[in-house]
């Protein structure tokens, strides 16, 4: 993708019509999305003949709906209007997603030199980036200094000395520990300063003449308890006050990531918004680092059934099947291991029938045939689903699909066993607003 012109720093303003269309019809565009995704999946798999195709033509592939990313952005604006999102690049560094989020005026949360470089190459102003990694590689800090990426987090004294040596002009965020016991992926065992250490850290920063501009926290990925946000906001207030006593003028609160794309987002956002207003006056800038919220629901993956083994239970007289797909936990299903996800298999193509979005693909259908679903590597850990049921008999050469595969999937795929870690994305766009921004 060619780099594009430097983008303005100002917020892209959503039209009143965009927000209006969201009111009352939260599924706005969703029907069109199904149509477009279905069409993309169908035309691709129908064009592949496994008996004659080139090596890799039948590889798994994604369909990414940029319109869904756009709808999630509208949802964010509607529910967390005060909070400026800085997309967590690690979650899915897809170039088209990054482009759209850039056009929407979002910032970016980067954790390495490569991520910073990818965002800067798009023409993004370094002020829109936060280097949100409290334990940084020295050469990366030098790179950030040279590139002008000033905002960065820290949570320990050594990092302050490192910053003093390499980037004394940095704008630092003190990352504090949170109670993440209710979240899916706990992060507080690894990062965050406990509240009994923040005073010492701030004093050290003061004596080193470093600029601490705010507090950051992360309640853990897949956070399910809104109370965790309230507690973290209260703790951040405590540290803001501590900092003020030491002469710092903190101006930004970073509420991190962990926002889920499911129905729990709205109640969670309401609780967070209320506590932000309770504890932080309007002049305090509030940013966040959502990752999964933006992309989880935007990507669907299609996988080819490369082999099948039937298993007969002589006592029960039943037959079940083991299906082997051309993608697994060492590939795009790495989310099962790293992110505790449970992708739901559905039938895309069974013989000549294309069943995308049909009841027979696995939705609520009475279970008739039992399956377990495996990846292509030689490792026993490579299992996608240990038990599921379809009403149809799936054969070698058929296709399955899995929805909600946008977060922590292809970014953590490996090349183990010689299987490819690069997979195609077919893009669709179910929202005219997003198409216009991307000039599609
Ligand atoms: C991973 C991460 C995020 C994104 O988390 P999500 O659960 O995808 O929202 C944000 N900030 C930091 C510091 C992270 O490590």
From TrEMBL:
Signal sequence residues: none
SUPFAM superfamilies: Alanine racemase C-terminal domain-like, PLP-binding barrel
Domain Orn/DAP/Arg decarboxylase 2 N-terminal: 66-296
One Pfam family matching this protein: Orn_Arg_deC_N
Active site: 378
Record keywords, A-Z: Cytoplasm, Decarboxylase, Lyase, Polyamine biosynthesis, Pyridoxal phosphate
Required co-factors: pyridoxal 5'-phosphate
Gene3D superfamilies reported for this sequence: Alanine racemase (3.20.20.10), Lyase, Ornithine Decarboxylase, Chain A, domain 1 (2.40.37.10)
Pathway: Amine and polyamine biosynthesis; putrescine biosynthesis via L-ornithine pathway; putrescine from L-ornithine: step 1/1
EC number: 4.1.1.17
Entry superkingdom: Eukaryota
One Gene Ontology term from the biological process aspect of the record: putrescine biosynthetic process from arginine, via ornithine
Compartments it resides in: Cytoplasm
CC per GO annotation: cytoplasm
Major place of residence: cytoplasm
Modified residues (N6-(pyridoxal phosphate)lysine): 90
Molecular-function annotations in GO: ornithine decarboxylase activity
Keyword Membrane belongs to the record: no
Family: Belongs to the Orn/Lys/Arg decarboxylase class-II family.
Subunit structure: Homodimer. Only the dimer is catalytically active, as the active sites are constructed of residues from both monomers.
PANTHER family assigned to the protein according to its UniProt record, in alphabetical order: ARGININE/DIAMINOPIMELATE/ORNITHINE DECARBOXYLASE (PTHR11482), ORNITHINE DECARBOXYLASE 1-RELATED (PTHR11482:SF6)
Protein name: Ornithine decarboxylase
């Amino acid at each position: 993708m060619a780099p594009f012109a430097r983008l303005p720093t100002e917020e892209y303003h959503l039209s009143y019509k965009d927000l209006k269309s969201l009111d009352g019809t939260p599924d706005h565009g969703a029907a069109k999305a199904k149509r477009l995704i279905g069409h993309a999946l169908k035309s691709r798999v129908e064009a592949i003949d496994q008996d004659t195709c080139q090596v890799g033509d039948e590889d798994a592939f994604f369909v990414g709906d940029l319109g869904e990313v756009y709808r999630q952005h509208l949802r964010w604006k509607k529910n967390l209007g005060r909070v400026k999102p800085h997309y967590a690049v690690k979650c899915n560094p897809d170039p088209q997603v990054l482009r759209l989020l850039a056009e929407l005026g979002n910032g970016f949360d980067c954790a390495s030199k490569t991520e910073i470089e990818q965002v800067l190459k798009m023409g993004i102003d370094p002020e829109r980036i936060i280097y949100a990694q409290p334990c940084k590689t020295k050469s990366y800090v030098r790179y950030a200094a040279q590139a002008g990426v000033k905002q960065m987090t820290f949570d320990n004294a050594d990092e302050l000395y490192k910053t003093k040596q390499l980037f004394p002009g940095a704008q630092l965020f003190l990352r504090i520990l949170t109670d993440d016991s209710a979240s899916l992926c706990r992060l507080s065992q690894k990062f965050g300063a406990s509240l009994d250490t923040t005073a010492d850290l701030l004093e050290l920063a003061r004596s080193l003449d470093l600029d601490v501009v705010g507090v950051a926290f992360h309640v853990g990925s897949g956070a399910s308890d809104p109370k965790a946000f309230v507690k973290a906001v209260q703790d951040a207030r405590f540290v803001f006050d501590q900092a003020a006593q030491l002469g710092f003028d903190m101006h930004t609160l970073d509420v991190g990531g962990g926002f889920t794309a499911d129905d729990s987002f709205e109640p969670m956002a309401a609780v967070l918004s209320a506590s932000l207003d309770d504890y932080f006056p309007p002049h305090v800038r509030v940013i966040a680092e959502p990752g999964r919220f933006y992309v989880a629901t935007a990507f669907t993956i299609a996988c080819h059934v490369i082999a099948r083994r039937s298993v007969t239970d002589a006592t029960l007289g039943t037959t079940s099947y083991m299906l082997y797909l051309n993608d697994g936990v060492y590939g795009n299903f790495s989310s099962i291991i790293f992110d505790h996800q449970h992708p739901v298999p559905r039938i895309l193509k069974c013989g000549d029938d294309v069943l995308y979005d049909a009841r027979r693909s696995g939705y609520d259908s009475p279970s008739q045939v039992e399956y377990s679903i495996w990846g292509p590597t030689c490792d026993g850990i490579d299992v996608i689903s240990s038990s599921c049921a379809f009403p149809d008999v799936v054969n070698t050469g058929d296709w399955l699909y899995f929805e909600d595969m946008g977060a922590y999937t292809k970014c953590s795929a490996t090349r183990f066993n010689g299987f490819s870690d690069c997979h195609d994305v077919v893009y669709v766009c179910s929202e005219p607003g997003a198409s216009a921004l991307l000039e599609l």
